[in-house]
């Protein structure tokens, strides 16, 4: 056998050995995939089951979130309405206070005028009564310091 033939036989033997190793690795890989496939199928089933169980929870959470958003929007509108009402009431109260102050000033001025007129009328009436008393004394001849109008006669 020549060197060339030996090299060909050794090369073929190596190819057969490499092919056998590759075949053994493929068989081992296939077995390994089968072994891994079973737990993966279980995990996949568990994930699917969990997904099915969580769907209603997620749906309820979405509904609750929507309701909370709607409630927050309503509360915001209500707070805005109350704020506007308070602002309007404050403005109205301010205007009413200003009107009342104006009326109080007018009434105070009117009372001052009435008081002046009453004092003037009282002074005029007192002067008139004093004049009448003096005149009646002169007519009756009574001494000064006698009884005043409205005094009861002694007796």
Question: Could you please describe the fold and organization of this structure?
Answer:
The chain has a domain at 1-103. The chain is 89% helix and 0% strand. It has one helix spanning 3-140.
Low-confidence stretches: none
Q: Characterize the overall form.
A: rod-shaped
Strand content: under 5%
Instruction: Give the H and E element order.
Output: H
Which helices and strands occur, and which strands form pairs?
Elements: H1 3-140
Using brief descriptors, characterize the structure shown.
89% helix; mainly alpha; 155 residues
Compact description:
With 155 residues, the protein is mainly α. The protein contains 1 helix and no strands. It has a domain at 1-103.
């Amino acid at each position: 056998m020549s060197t060339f033939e030996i090299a060909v036989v050794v090369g073929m033997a190596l190819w057969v050995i490499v092919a056998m190793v590759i075949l053994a690795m493929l068989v081992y890989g296939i077995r390994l995939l089968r072994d891994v496939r079973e737990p993966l199928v279980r995990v996949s089933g568990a994930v699917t089951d969990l997904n099915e169980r969580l769907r209603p929870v997620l749906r309820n959470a979405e509904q609750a979130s929507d309701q909370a958003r709607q409630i927050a929007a309503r509360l915001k509108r209500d707070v805005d309405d109350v704020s506007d009402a308070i602002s309007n009431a404050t403005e109205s109260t301010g205007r009413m206070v200003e009107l009342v102050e104006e009326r109080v000033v007018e009434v105070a001025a009117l009372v001052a005028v009435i008081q002046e007129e009453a004092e003037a009328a009282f002074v005029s009436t007192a002067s008139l009564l004093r004049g009448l008393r003096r005149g009646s004394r002169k007519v009756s001849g009574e001494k000064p310091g006698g009884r005043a109008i409205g005094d009861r006669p002694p007796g």
